[in-house]
C-alpha cells in the first residue's frame, strides 16, 4: 500500500528535468526494491471492536472491588482497601466466539463520592449490584443505588442489564439476609441473583458471565434491529 501511495504522489508531482552537468555528477543509483505483492495488503474491513461498560454499585465494604479482582486476576485481598472515587480496569474475553473488551468502572460506595459517581453512569450496559449477606443495611440500600442510577443522566435503566450479588457467602458469621428474600427482590426487578464469595471464588465466574452474555445478547439484537447483522 505504501508503494501505491508513493506512486500516486509521483504522478501528481513528476520530477523536474535536471541539467546535463548535474546529471554527469550523479552516480548510478542502486536498484530499488520491487513493490510488495498485492497479497501483502488487504481491502477487508477491520475486525469489529466490541466493548461493554460495566459498573459496580453497592455500599462500602461489601466486596465490589474484591469480586472484580477475583474474576480478573483470580486473587483475593484479605484486607479492606477503600476505593477512591472510581477504579477502572479492562479484561478481554470471548463471548460466543467474539472478542469483547470488558471495561470495569468500580464505584466507591462512600457517599462523599456521589458527584464523581454521577459522571460515570452514562453509557453503561451492565451493572454488578453488590451487598453483604451479613449486613441487612447493605441489602436495604440497594433501593438507594437503583434510585441513584435512575436519576443519573445518560443511563437507560430499561436497557441496563443487572446482576445482584449477595457477597461473602463463605463467611462463618451470622447471616442477616435470607436467600429467598434476596432472590424475590431481584426477580421482581427482572434481574439475576447470585450468592458469591470473593474469597473462594464461588459463583463469581457464573455471575459475571451471566451479565456479560446478557449484554452481548442485547448487542446482537441491536445489530439486527438497525440492520447491521
UniProtKB/TrEMBL annotation:
Record key words, sorted: GTP-binding, Nucleotide-binding
Region listing for Disordered, in residue ranges: 1-45
Compositionally biased region (Low complexity): 18-32
Compositionally biased residues, Basic and acidic residues: 1-13
Gene Ontology molecular-function annotations: GTP binding; GTPase activity
PANTHER family according to UniProt: RAS-RELATED PROTEIN RAB (PTHR47977)
Protein name (Swiss-Prot/TrEMBL): Uncharacterized protein
Organism this protein belongs to: Halteria grandinella
